[in-house]
Amino acid sequence: MYRMMLKFCSIVLITTFLAACASQAGSKVIPRAKAPNVTSNYEIGPGDVLDVFVWRNPEISITVPVRPDGKISTPLVEDMVAVGKTPTQLARDIEAKLNTFIKTPKVTVITQQFVGTFNKQVRVVGQAVNPRALSYRENMSLLDVMIEVGGLTEFAAGNKAKIVRRSGNKELTIPARIKDLMQNGDINANLRIQAGDILFIPQSWF
User: Which of 32, 75, 85, 86 has the greatest number of CB atoms lying within 10 Å of its CB?
Assistant: First the structure.
């Protein structure tokens, strides 16, 4: 009987010890890998909408569009050039101006609506439902552009459209068969779009 009790106690002690070791191993904190440093190279363009946030100064924080002349005006900072700068660069420039009024200002600029500089836009002119300038995206296609502008109007001569593209010192004109693409599903008409392209969609004269 004594031996059985001793054996039972030994089993309990070993089991408790192993459980404690497993608990300690499971509770170890595994260091997390650092997130990669991501730097935005996006350049602000005319028509972008910016949130300008001044830390601890909500009365001069503002949401403002970039004017066609490439400038913005915020409380205490007038006619600041924004076009061609990254949001971080613009924030530092605003801080430099605010230093006159605020001790050690901290500014954050966030782009809410993206259009980009002219050389990074795709502009749609003519008989689109919503002709406008679009922000270029990598691997953008003609179909992507037409979806964003709402398609063709009922008066559009879709197969007579053209893309004007600058290549070095030359200007290329590329036929675009938008009607075949959108109405007939001709995938061969789905051209690759490049930054800076201008898409002209003429009106049909019947």
Answer: 85
